[in-house]
Design a protein that fits this description.
This protein is α/β, with parallel strands linked by helices and 519 residues long. The protein contains 15 helices and 27 strands. The radius of gyration is 23 Å and the shape is globular.
């Protein structure tokens, strides 16, 4: 069997044809693996008939749906390269990615018709796109596509359900996923069939996943934290239950009604779910665990879920690692709350100093990761690739410590660290304390100029109680943090800016709150 990710769906349909594979929660559509694979074959054949060939980049601009995942596997089967697009981006940002990846085809959901029409109107000029084929994914065959596009539903209905010829495997490109670009223009992390396979293998060897699992997918499928789990579910033969878009109340209801066993939520999602939790309406007894990652998980949040009898396992990974890096086991999730655990089974993780030497246990340094699931490169960015991948190790830019037992404690992005009075301050540590305040919904911490200390901390807070004062917040931190770590001023806001993976956009916070610390 060739190592082609699209063939995994074919193989699963052969082994488990009547097993429920995909539940589209927002439309109520349910698909067995046989049905899912047949739909994917039709999509593969419609793409071939439309002129898509091996190596072509094809962009997907869709909400979470069966059409998204059948298209992903279809592209894999025919050797085309999937380029997932973040639907939260502006037209200019979308145009940059489509142009940078040189996409020849774009599949788009009807809700993005206006944005795509603006893209299409740009042509192939300096700020335009390379797209030659526009395919409109409407809800029904009767939903007419715009004049410049073809109908996905009509094309799929007319296409053959036969297996297409497999024309890619192993080190051939599978997808290009663009990073969130918190420090500049996004870069495309290139994954191959081989790197994706090793991602699935290391997950299967490490996580407590079972064929009987009913996995709730609530992150957007343009995120590695959703795309990799959906692929892993096929590899395992479990069931993916997919929300079109995350809603905290609905997430609880789905967990209760669909007997969800596992899933992944970023910390912000877990926090939102906690705010609306109603034990009188929810039965979450089927849940075995929830994983949380993409940002440091406040210890207080892990304990609050533990009080509900729900185990939260912190997971650490990146787009560039196809997802996996570290995972904390069930046994250690509470005992070592705050740690993201140890390296996955087929993964090596170290914490190194500026010279690339291993830090002493407890010492602060940069996380580096090695494994078969590390990306091939950054698309058309050889210098950025060489900077990040050295001697087979991917340099994450994340600051952390590792204890003597190999447990990793992520502290922050190295660039987000600030120095106050000669001492390093890691915002995540301060944010962890603020998150434990009963009247704080969420908080972000940034370094701001200080005439006395060089830099001091500013806390940006979303408050639950409208009259919560700056002094109350500062006072709360005084006996919980060393003096140099304590924030010196507080800003109140309605919302903390985050990227799609849940990370706080510190750059945006610094732009919104540029003031200096009081002396």
């Amino acid at each position: 069997m060739k190592n082609n990710i699209g063939l995994f769906l074919t193989k699963r349909a052969h082994l488990s044809p009547d097993q429920e594979g995909f539940v589209d929660l927002d439309t109520g559509r349910r698909f067995t693996y046989r049905q899912w694979n047949e739909r994917s074959n039709r999509t593969a054949n419609l793409l071939l008939e439309s002129g898509v060939s091996r190596g072509d980049r094809v962009a997907l601009l869709m909400m979470n749906s069966i059409e998204y995942m059948e298209s992903f596997f279809a592209l894999a089967k025919i050797g085309a390269v999937c380029v997932p697009l973040n639907w939260r981006l502006t037209v200019d940002e979308l145009a940059f990615i489509v142009r940078d990846a040189e996409c020849s085809t774009l599949l788009f959901g009807g809700e993005f018709g206006d944005a795509v029409a603006k893209l299409a109107a740009r042509g192939d000029g300096e700020n335009g796109t390379s797209v030659q084929r526009w395919i409109h994914v409407g809800a029904t065959a009767d939903e007419a596509p715009p004049d410049f596009a073809q109908s996905y539903v009509s094309l799929q209905k007319a296409a053959s359900a036969d297996e297409p010829e497999i024309s890619a495997c192993d080190d051939d490109l599978l997808y290009i996923m663009y990073t969130s670009g918190t420090t500049g223009l996004p870069k495309g992390a290139v994954h191959t069939h081989s790197t994706a396979l090793w991602g699935l293998i290391t997950i299967a060897a490490t996580a407590d996943s079972r064929p009987s699992d009913r996995y709730l997918v609530a992150l957007p499928l343009f995120h590695v934290g959703a795309l990799t789990p959906c692929t892993s579910i096929v590899h395992l033969g479990a069931t993916a239950l997919v929300m079109r878009q995350f809603d905290p109340r609905r997430a609880w209801q789905v967990i209760s009604d669909e007997k969800i066993t596992t899933g992944l939520k970023v910390p912000a999602m877990l926090n939102f779910m906690l705010q609306v939790y109603d034990p009188s309406k929810i039965d979450h007894s089927s849940l075995r665990w929830l994983q949380s990652g993409a940002a440091p998980v406040p210890v207080s949040l892990i304990h609050k879920y533990a009080e509900l009898g729900i185990e939260v396992q912190q997971v650490y990974g990146l787009t560039e690692t196809c997802g996996p890096a570290c995972l904390i086991s069930s046994a250690d999730a509470i005992a070592r709350a705050g740690s993201t655990g140890k390296a996955f089974f087929h993964t090596d993780v170290r914490v190194v100093d500026e010279d690339g030497n291993d830090c002493e246990p407890g010492g602060y340094g940069e996380v580096v990761v090695r494994g078969g699931h590390i990306m091939k490169e950054y698309w058309k960015r050889p210098e950025a690739t060489q900077e990040c991948i050295r001697d087979g190790w991917f340099h994450t830019g994340d600051g952390a410590s590792m204890d003597a037992d190999g447990f990793v404690y992520i502290q922050d992005r190295i660039k987000d660290m600030y120095i106050s009075g000669g001492e390093n301050v890691y915002p995540a540590e301060v944010e962890n304390v603020l998150a434990s305040h009963p009247d704080i919904v969420e908080a972000g911490v940034i370094g701001v100029p200080s005439e006395k200390w060089g830099e001091s901390g500013a806390a940006v807070v979303v408050r639950k109680r409208a009259d919560l004062s700056e002094e109350e917040v500062l006072d709360f931190c005084r006996d919980k943090l060393a003096r140099y770590k304590q924030p010196k001023l507080v800003y109140f806001t309605e919302q903390i800016p985050r990227n799609p993976s849940g990370k706080i956009l510190k750059r945006v916070l610094r732009e919104q709150f540029p003031g200096a610390a009081p002396e």
